[in-house]
Amino acid sequence: MQRIAYTFTNSTVQYYLDTDFIHLEKLADREHAVIITDEHIQRRHQRKLKDWAKIVIPPGEGSKVQSVVDTIIARLLFLGADRDTLLIGVGGGVVTDITGYVASVYMRGLKFGFVPTTLLAMVDAAIGGKNGVDVGPYKNMVGTIRQPAFLLYDYKFLKTLPAAEWINGFAEIIKHAAIADPKLFRELEGQRPAIYRKDSKKLSLLVRRNVLIKSGIVKKDEFEKSDRKLLNFGHSLGHAIENLYGLSHGQAISIGMAYAAIISEEITGFKETERLHRLLASYGLPLKITVQTDKIMAVLRMDKKRQKEQIRYILLDKIGKARVIPIPMERLERILEAVLDKG
Amino acid sequence: MQRIAYTFTNSTVQYYLDTDFIHLEKLADREHAVIITDEHIQRRHQRKLKDWAKIVIPPGEGSKVQSVVDTIIARLLFLGADRDTLLIGVGGGVVTDITGYVASVYMRGLKFGFVPTTLLAMVDAAIGGKNGVDVGPYKNMVGTIRQPAFLLYDYKFLKTLPAAEWINGFAEIIKHAAIADPKLFRELEGQRPAIYRKDSKKLSLLVRRNVLIKSGIVKKDEFEKSDRKLLNFGHSLGHAIENLYGLSHGQAISIGMAYAAIISEEITGFKETERLHRLLASYGLPLKITVQTDKIMAVLRMDKKRQKEQIRYILLDKIGKARVIPIPMERLERILEAVLDKG
């Protein structure tokens, strides 16, 4: 086991890397803890979870809504959860996002921790304290920023991870490389996702590296006044198409990054679109989708990164270096109209 | 106008006392602000509010629920509210509680300010950053602690305040006196509520004094680890009966304080029950209600001040001095069984 601690604005997060789920017993008093998980995890890991009080939600992005929050709160009341209860989210990004949100508002705030079980949650979603739910097609429209007390990494959960979920995780890993780590980008260009699946040493190093990239960025700018925005690379368009077209998060932001590269060419003079597209494709990620520009613009107008009549778009100068550039909504619409695949 | 500033853990709150609603134009850019208010205020003060974007909710405690939060969020999306939008709660405690809560979670947090329009909101509910909604019979079960940017006090709103609402405000004023200010308690004993209604100078001094009492306590202990708990005097039993029996907040906590005094006699040797009861009654506040102990215990078991098998009850040593005393749930049940009026 490796232990890392990051101190953010109001609290310290303990990361327990390369450990076993059983270690949770040292972090939580079972009498005063409730696990929130989804039906997939509950079915696949029944034995691990059997001695814990649990709230099990349906799997998938469809659960990241207020009505599921309402149900969890009713269950917590039924279980007699009080201010000393620890909530533990065991699952992918949907579970950790909703657990963090419930913990932020139930009785005005409980302690919480995460056991991310997908690659995407391990390298991205469970880190940084952003939580919340979707409102209709608008992703993460409601939520808070509040850090978990701990993150526990047990890579054995990845053994039961479906292949599509594995690919999803690489979308965020490639994002980290593209905005902040050109060496990681080159390393990824030399590998295939299957390698990391087979070689647990390589996987452990890859996860750790991504944990450090994201945590470092968040530590410098927890409330997203400056550099944390760069983590939204691929996410403006990505979020707009994710719920509209029923894509997975990884697919959606892969397409978002692919188009952000093309937009970067026009605005920053970025010259490595081909290289980014090739890497995404080689990890099984999509580069485009047939869409209707007006539908997308309607969702983009509600993007949290919009400020009055501009949207703060994340663009690349080169691989490993990103920038926030405000683009007037009208100009963005003209560009998207020209580049999007309208079938 | 008098201006006071209090700096809490993460932010500073500006209080504009004894001013006019028109001053709001100096605090908020109308193009990027949305007022949240209720139907009563909207009807009575149409002219004042006419040039502002508004979301109007039904009046009363029944609106302090998640479904109304959902509706407000949908309206904010429709109005195109973004992270630069300022939310302004204009109303009593229900409006300020729900406005603060929406502002804490919409797009992970907007700036907000309050214009309290009831005596109770002016001296208590709008101060201190606690916000949230009820869940069934459980008061404020969900919420956050987050401070408004400003509070604007225009006493002219009190001219249209119904008499019952006026009396409600005095329940919290008497609470402040009972736990922290024996001089104020004596002053109140020498007056009648009608005096403050007629004499605007006296009213202004009374509101200011209560603003200072509450803000001072919150400033020392924003996240309620110690002395802020004292502000819950009368609120454990009060909250349990408020929604169960459809009482106003003032009535409920008056009864809560009346019984807390009797419980104090048994536990701290408090000797001024008669004096507290007399003052409450002279301001038109009730001292008891016919109840079913088992129903009340069921709600008390979910009180946010419960910690495992104990409830942290606020009791008086003497007028002006309160203390938090943990009482085992079983002992509390025996005491309540003996003292409550079961008809």
Biggest beta-sheet profile of chain A: 7 strands, mixed
Distance between the termini of chain A: 50 Å
**Total helical segments of chain A:** 15
Task: Name the chain pair with the biggest interface and residue counts per chain.
Answer: A-B, 33 and 33 residues
Assembly level = homodimer
Strands of the widest sheet of chain A, in order across it, are 1-2-9-6-5-3-4
What does this entry look like structurally?
- Chain A is of the alpha/beta class.
- Chain A has 15 helices and twelve strands.
- Chain A has helices at residues 24-27, 39-44, 46-49, 66-78, 93-105, 119-125, 163-180, 182-189, 193-198, 200-220, 235-244, 249-268, 273-282, 293-300, 329-339; strands spanning 2-7, 12-17, 33-38, 53-57, 86-91, 111-116, 133-135, 138-142, 150-152, 306-307, 310-318, 321-328.
- In chain A, the strands form three sheets. Chain A has a seven-stranded mixed beta sheet. Chain A has a three-stranded antiparallel beta sheet with strand order 10-11-12.
- The termini of chain A are far apart.
- The mean pLDDT of chain A is 95.
- Chains A and B meet through α4, β8 and β10 of A and α4, β8 and β10 of B.
In short:
Two copies of one chain form a homodimer. Chain A is built from 15 helices and twelve strands.
Task: Give the key terms.
homodimer, 3-stranded antiparallel β-sheet, alpha/beta, 343 residues, 7-stranded mixed β-sheet
